[in-house]
Description:
Helices cover 31% and strands 27% of the residues. By secondary structure, the protein is an alpha/beta fold. The structure holds guanosine-5'-triphosphate and magnesium ion. Guanosine-5'-triphosphate is lined by residues 18, 20-26, 51-53, 77, 79-81, 140-141, 143-144, 168-170.
Amino acid sequence: MKVHTAQRLMTLKVVYYGPGMSGKTTNLRSLHGMFGAGQRGALVQLDTETERTLFFDYFPVVIGEIRGFRLKVDLFTVPGQSFYQTTRRVVLDGADGIVFVADSHPDREEANLLSREDMVAALTDQGRDLQDVPHVYQWNKRDVRGAVPTHFLGKQLNPEKAPAVEAVAEQGIGVQETHRLVLQGVIESIRNRSPRPPEGPVHA
Ligand SMILES: Nc1nc2c(ncn2[C@@H]2O[C@H](COP(=O)(O)OP(=O)(O)OP(=O)(O)O)[C@@H](O)[C@H]2O)c(=O)[nH]1
Ligand SMILES: [Mg+2]
């Protein structure tokens, strides 16, 4: 979280993490389309010719006000392909909230697990613990044949019982709910942390 007192602006960082092809970029694209033009900045996509994320995707959005401070959220995705580990760590650094986009396809169980391990290791290296970072799980691709039941996904990936949302990001299903839940977690944690908690509703 960055507070720019002179501009009365507060900036939060939310990172979409997860294995390659789980639908992180799809989430960001879909979400971008859901905000008004005056509310959002341009969507930056740094990808390869085959649309695999190379560095990250990014867009900023102003979601409301807390105590007279405009609240801006910087949304990022990481590149899921395993060899981009260094980039993932750079993007994850300083995240106020994380969305873990898991792939429900049965062939991706191991990829989900490895990606979560990679995320936990990255946080550990940054001196953080997943328990202390507001995060939500998105069980994406619920439309695929033989989708792994959500209670299995929960057991494997979410022993801490963080909030979880079912999604079909390609159809925009669950995208906004995921975003809302992670922000709720981030804002709650800020309220709990600050000595004089911000009051009043956030107008999302
Ligand atoms: N069936 C199905 N396909 C999806 C869904 N969401 C995304 N996809 C498809 O999955 C593929 C990968 O989606 P991306 O959003 O590019 O995945 P990513 O997680 O950004 O992948 P990396 O950038 O490589 O980490 C694309 O062909 C999407 O259209 C979904 O809910 N259901
Ligand atoms: Mg991507």
